[in-house]
Write a structure and sequence with these properties.
The chain has 9 helices and 16 strands. The strands form 3 sheets. Strands 3, 5, 6, 7, 8, 15 and 16 form a 7-stranded mixed beta sheet that branches. A 6-stranded parallel beta sheet has the order 11-10-9-12-13-14, with helices on both faces. A 3-stranded antiparallel beta sheet has the order 2-1-4, with helices on one face. Helix 3 packs across helix 4, helix 3 packs across helix 8 and helix 6 runs parallel beside helix 7. The two termini are 17 Å apart. The model has no long low-confidence stretch (mean pLDDT 95).
C-alpha cells in the first residue's frame, strides 16, 4: 500500500509498505483527514532515537473504520472516528500504576509514527480499538476533531500540570498551535492574567481570541525581566513551556514565583546533552518551584472529553487550521509547510477523499 515514510534521518518519501494485519482487539482504518505535526518534523529532521527502516509517519488523524477484530465491541466498519495521537497499550501493567504515558518503556504511550506504523498511509492499524478510538459527537466537524487528537489535548495538558488557581498570572512561552491551546486551557482553569510570548501576527491574533491578556515580544528585551516588571518583581504563578530552544527551560524557572510557582513543560527539546537549571533563581536547589515535564494525555476518554468542549462551544480549535490541502499525495507538501513555518501558518490539514 502507498505510505509516506521516514527513509533515513532527514529524508522522507513514498513507499510501498505491507498492509496492516488485523488483531482481535484492533481495527484497520483509512485516513480521511490528517495533520503533520511539529513532532513529525522533529522525527524526520531533528534526530532522536533510532527508528525502524521506512517507518510510516503521522499521528494526527480522523479516519474511517474498514475492519474490526473479533473482540471489538463498541465500533463497526463505516464509522468515522478520531484517532488519538497518544495510544497507550492499556493492558501494560504500568497502567495500573497510573503511568499512562510511559507504562512499559519511555514514551510507550506515543506509538503511532514512532514505534509502530503511523497514519500517513492508505490503511493503518489501531491494535486496541475500544480503548483508543474516540467517537465524534454530533455537531463536531472533521476539522475540529482533528485538532482535538493532539493539539488540544497537548495544550490542555500543559495547562493542567501548571497547577493554575483562580486569579493566577500565567506565562505561555511559545504560541504555536500547542501554545495557543495552552492559553485556552489556562483561561478555562481560571487564570486571570495570561501573558503569551510570541511574535507572529497570526498567532498573536489567535492568542488574544483564546484568552491572552498580554503579548510579550522577546525581540524587545529579556523576557524574564519583562515578566518580572509586569508582576511587581514576584514572577508568574505558573509558566507553561510550549516552544523555544534550550534556554527557555531556564527562563521559565527564572520567571516563576518562589515557594508556590509551577513550571509545566510540553515542549520538545531536541538533541542530547542537558537542559540548563539556573542555580540562583532555583534557590540553589531550594526555591520551592515545581517542575512538570509532560507528554500529552491520550486515549479514548480523554479525546472524547476534548470533543465535548467543542460540541458545547467552549473551545474553537478549528481556528488553528490556516492551510488546507486535498489528497493523500499532499502530505509531503504539508510536512514541509510545518517545517518551514510561513508567517501565515498555524496548522495545515490534509483532507483525503477516497471516492
Amino acid at each position: 500500500m502507498k505510505s509516506f515514510v521516514l527513509i533515513e534521518p532527514g529524508k522522507v518519501g513514498w513507499h510501498d509498505s505491507p498492509a496492516p494485519v488485523l488483531t482481535p482487539f484492533g481495527a484497520i482504518l483509512r485516513p480521511i483527514a490528517v495533520a503533520p505535526c511539529s513532532s513529525d518534523v522533529h522525527t524526520v529532521f531533528g534526530g532522536g532515537s533510532r527508528k525502524a527502516p521506512n517507518l510510516i509517519l503521522g499521528h494526527e488523524c480522523v479516519a474511517e473504520i474498514l475492519e474490526i477484530g473479533e473482540l471489538v465491541q463498541d465500533f463497526k466498519p463505516g464509522e468515522i472516528v478520531a484517532v488519538p495521537a497518544i495510544t497507550p497499550n492499556w493492558r501494560d501493567l504500568g497502567i495500573q500504576e497510573h503511568n499512562f504515558k510511559h507504562a512499559s518503556a519511555p514514551f510507550s504511550g506515543h506509538q503511532l509514527g514512532r514505534s509502530q506504523p503511523g497514519v500517513f498511509a492508505e490503511k493503518f492499524l489501531i491494535p486496541d480499538a475500544d480503548t483508543t478510538l474516540a467517537r465524534i459527537p454530533e455537531g463536531v466537524s472533521v476539522k475540529q476533531a482533528l485538532m482535538c487528537v493532539d493539539v488540544v489535548t497537548t495544550g490542555f495538558t500543559g495547562a493542567e500540570y501548571a497547577d493554575i488557581q483562580f486569579g493566577d498570572t500565567v506565562v505561555v512561552m511559545g504560541i504555536g498551535p500547542i501554545g495557543l491551546m495552552a492559553v485556552e486551557g489556562a483561561r478555562h482553569l481560571g487564570a486571570a492574567r495570561i501573558i503569551a510570548v510570541g511574535t507572529r501576527p497570526v498567532c498573536v491574533k489567535l492568542a488574544r481570541e483564546f484568552g491572552a491578556t498580554d503579548i510579550l515580544d522577546y525581540r524587545t528585551g529579556d523576557i524574564v525581566e519583562q515578566v518580572k516588571a509586569m508582576t511587581g518583581g514576584l514572577g508568574a504563578d505558573s509558566v507553561i513551556i510550549c516552544g523555544g530552544q534550550d534556554e527557555a527551560f531556564a527562563q521559565a524557572i527564572d520567571m516563576v514565583r518562589y515557594g508556590i510557582g509551577t513550571v509545566s513543560n510540553v515542549n520538545y527539546f531536541g538533541g542530547t546533552g542537558s537542559l540548563p537549571f539556573p542555580k540562583f533563581s532555583g534557590g540553589r536547589g531550594m526555591a520551592g518551584k515545581t517542575i512538570h515535564t509532560e507528554l500529552a494525555q491520550g486515549g479514548r476518554v480523554r479525546i472524547e472529553r476534548m470533543m465535548q468542549m467543542v460540541r458545547f462551544g467552549r473551545i474553537h480549535p478549528e481556528k488553528l487550521v490556516t492551510h488546507q490541502l486535498f489528497g493523500l499525495d499532499k502530505i509531503e507538501d504539508a510536512l514541509y509547510l510545518m517545517k518551514e513555518k510561513p508567517q501565515d501558518l498555524v496548522k495545515v490539514m490534509v483532507q483525503i477523499n477516497w471516492e
